[in-house]
Amino acid sequence: MMRRAASSPACSSCLASLSASRNFTPRITQPWLPQIRHAHAAARASTERPSRMVLAENVGRGRSGSRTRREGPFGNLNRRTANVDPRRLANEREAADRRPSRGAPRKDEPKDDRKAMKMQRILAGVPHTKRQVIKDKMAGYEDFDQFDLLPVVKEALMGEVFRGMTDLKPTPVQRLALPALLGQDTKTKSASGSESGPDSYLLAAETGSGKTLAYLLPAINAMKKTEAMDEDVKAWEERRRTEMELQAAGQVKRKARPFDEPHPTMARPKVIVLVPTSELAQQVLRVSKSLSHVIKYKAEMISSDLKPQQIQRNVYGAKGVDMIIATPHLLASIADSDPNVLSRVNHLIIDEADSLLDRSFSPVTTSIIERASPSLKQLICVSATIPRKLNNYLATNYPKMHRITTPNLHAIPRRVQLGVMDVSKPPYHNNKDVACAEALFTIGREAAQHEGLNKSEIDVRRVIVFVNEREKTEEVAKYLRSKNIQAEALHRDTPETRHGEILETFTSNEALTIPAPTKPSAMKLPNVKALVVTDLASRGIDTLAVRHVILYDVPHTSIDFIHRLGRAGRMGRRGRGIVLAGNDDRKDVIAEVKRSMFMGQALI
Ligand SMILES: Nc1ncnc2c1ncn2[C@@H]1O[C@H](COP(=O)(O)OP(=O)(O)OP(=O)(O)O)[C@@H](O)[C@H]1O
């Protein structure tokens, strides 16, 4: 039932209390209402005790006496400042500023408005100020002569690895890592060492920036230095010399008493390099072998593409082995049956550490680290990216690890350009095969124009096409071949023996040329060779001669963007990436990656 409004005069506070009750319809048009309001106000002013609704006159002035600590169960209520020790607060703020993993930008850092990439935020951040400090630190080393390398190591570097190259300068990661790993940088040494365990380092630098030499040179240098002091090796050499002298003097017959005592380093390497794939093992071995010709040490690899007898020979060869480059599973299984394989390791290098310490590889990699620990002097993790997971893993397990990161970490170099083909529009109608073939034709046409006429030989452009699924590699390569484009597919199921052969064209630094066609041939695009691959070829593979990369599928993460685009524009060269953006692709992510590349910003 509706309640009627009171018919007698009432003031505004009375009306307010009435209106609070449900179903009350106020009649506020009465002409006498203002007078009643004034009467009430006058009565209020005349009372001695102020109403609870009236604020104290000094309310704005704050408390005069200090009452920072209030006792009792409600002492912490209605506080205007946090109940935290101000010194602790200041310390925490300072630590947060120094902590590399904190994603929050500092005051002096430019504002970051990359919304789509922030959704995944998969990479650990490197603070702006830290990047500046690194730049200053790098400035001290301009020449390879400034590093404490043995003369024979320098000779091998210049005469073999860099043969025919002039005006060589160490790259940023080499300027930072070589002094630290060689012990020239005393500050780094004291920070990374611990009384009980080995010195541990993280080397993180852009793709194609020379990380392989940055870790190989110090390890080989240390190996050579300690070799001269190795008592077992000295004694073995003495016995061998005596035996040879006896044979030469005709006192013993070589056939009757051959000197076949195994070298003390047989199956006892001093340096181990762990890599995720056979292809990468092959590549690191190539660099190491070129150094070993001059430095004289024995380097071998073990990976699943080798026959068991070959693996046996590489590890248990009578001449011994100083360095083993291996995939973790194979090495761990050898160490299971012969634990002494890891008993003399001084340097353990984990290349592509973000892969080898992720969930799938981590148990086996860490088991190798643990078994090698007693003799280990340096543990070196190497990576082109520091995912947040790796960052946390290292911070927890190796809190004293010294992090060597370059100023441009996680940034794709500006010399690599990214073009976007909107495949959702005509004439492609979301058909990426057609768009990919079109992109390759454009590359071929541009190259032909660049070559000019009247040449007897033309350059062949090597293009890597990245897809996300292995099934897609064959499918795309088949389509391209149907359009008379030279294309090969490479994925995990390709016979391992063929991997090296297929990759060779793309990893070779030699110019690839063919005789200039004089008449139109069946091969519509003679000057382009395409390799359709999954991520198998995105990690560590040194494709110096590749200028073009096509991202057929949009990479799932910014880490994949960095690694895939990192196959072009290596070691200061120019490169071009073309991403095919279809209807279902995250165009906002692509746009942000493109903008970051243009601005020279690190991906997140
Ligand atoms: N100081 C240097 N000057 C010129 N070239 C160099 C120098 N250091 C290394 N290189 C060459 O640069 C190329 C790339 O080096 P490397 O494969 O070590 O790169 P990376 O940093 O390991 O790349 P990724 O992260 O992709 O594995 C190699 O061909 C190597 O010979």
TrEMBL record:
Residues 85-115 have a biased composition (Basic and acidic residues). It comes from the Eukaryota. Coiled coil: none annotated. Residues 452-604 form the Helicase C-terminal domain. Pfam families: DEAD, Helicase_C. Residues 39-115 are annotated as: Disordered. This is RNA helicase.
